[in-house]
């Protein structure tokens, strides 16, 4: 039986991200009601662990954790098929809404694939920052049955002005686009953008051009190459972006105190280099951390640039590793943070390489 499995979600700063697709079956035969889709699976959970957890409700005949074809990274959802329909119903009753690590599982019946239900997921940008899921639902409900909605938030819980709505049918999603795209919401002065969220046939691996680094610092950050292959940083050292600074930029006094101790930072890896690519995404190596650095410090430092899947800190040695979901996000974080100053220390930030590991083990 073919199932409505969308291609892997992607989260890029210059591309529309996609939430984990949720699929629901309402009126199927008994035979169809044995297959479940589990959304919001923690990224470090294995297929074997999922099968073991759901086997407590009955006999699991198959279990499939969906992974990115290129990286092997979990995409946050899985399919579990039971031998009997009553076992599947029991799993939905007991596991739907269960909290696992920092995720709340969404467990529902998977439905057979059809052209009518494919590609019904919308990406919305330009939303007011105070909008919640219920506000988005109220805006889009007149155009059809909403399967799920999601508003993206930053690390502090504030809305990022973007979100997703998945309709039951594609024609409902199209109606919402026709009516709401470029519409100015009451009480706001900006227009919202509503469009389909990365249809599968357009989701090919893409890497950002250096000119695609986000404004307003994009032009200033475009590197000039020196003969050693690294970028030449000019006056920009005194105004490096710092997510932990109240203004968003490191202080000039701090940068000045660090300047004499700084080394020439290395450039991000070429898009054609896959040394930083791991099973948990793109791995960033950061060196020169303050002595009191914590994993929370690293989360706050890197989370403004995108989704973090894992953080590993070696505080006693002054370095750590951060895994980010997409190349675009990792690339941008490196360009903004490499050479930035924190508590008198200049950070060296680059993609993880075998050379990093050998240097730190020595």
TrEMBL record:
GO terms for cellular component: cytoplasm; ribonucleoprotein complex. Pfam families: RRM_1. Gene3D superfamilies: 3.30.70.330. Residues 34-112, 120-199, 282-354 form the RRM domain. Keywords: Repeat, RNA-binding. One of its GO terms (molecular function) is mRNA binding. GO terms for biological process: negative regulation of gene expression; positive regulation of signal transduction. It comes from the Eukaryota. PROSITE patterns: RRM. Belongs to the RRM elav family. NCBIfam families: ELAV_HUD_SF (TIGR01661). This is RRM domain-containing protein. It comes from Exaiptasia diaphana.
